[in-house]
Design goal:
mainly alpha, 50% helix, globular
């Protein structure tokens, strides 16, 4: 099947890039299912944590920088329709960044992210889509056959 899903993600290039595993500007059905499998309740938290890191690493530098964290916080607040003053947002971002950046080098690496996620399991709360269990019930091979090399996710 060669269905293309690129138009579904036009409003969020970060999500598009994560789903476009082949980096060809299109999301085929296989890539869509592969990426969707990360959100399956039975997918190990370690996989979800690595995927979440990539989600926050907006510029694909291998690190989460202060501005990237702020952009994600703003996006989450907007999605939740929450309105908070700029000062409060900056305080939240600064406090969170300082807590996660344990090496104090001004950026969050994969190791720091994994340690933070281990201390804050609620971080993965939105990365579990319970209705995907229904898909597994109908197609038991969904999780098993959609696993990819870690480097692909």
């Amino acid at each position: 099947m060669n269905a293309k899903f690129s138009s579904c993600f036009n409003s969020d290039p970060v999500i598009f890039d994560l789903f476009d595993v082949k980096r060809n500007g299109h999301i085929d059905f296989g890539e869509f299912i592969l990426s969707l499998s990360v959100f399956h309740p039975k997918t190990p938290d370690a996989v979800k944590i690595k995927y979440a890191f990539k989600l926050y690493d907006l510029r694909r530098t291998g690190y989460i920088e202060h501005e990237e964290l702020k952009e994600m916080v703003l996006a989450l607040l907007e999605e939740s329709d929450l309105h908070i003053s700029d000062d409060v947002i900056e305080t939240i971002v600064d406090k969170t960044f300082n807590e996660v950046d344990t090496k104090g080098d001004g950026r969050i690496d994969q190791e720091e992210w994994e340690e933070y996620a281990a201390r804050n399991p609620s971080l993965l709360k939105n990365m579990k889509l319970p209705y995907l269990m229904d898909v597994t019930g109908v197609f038991p091979s969904f999780v098993l056959n959609t696993k990819a090399q870690e480097s692909q996710l």
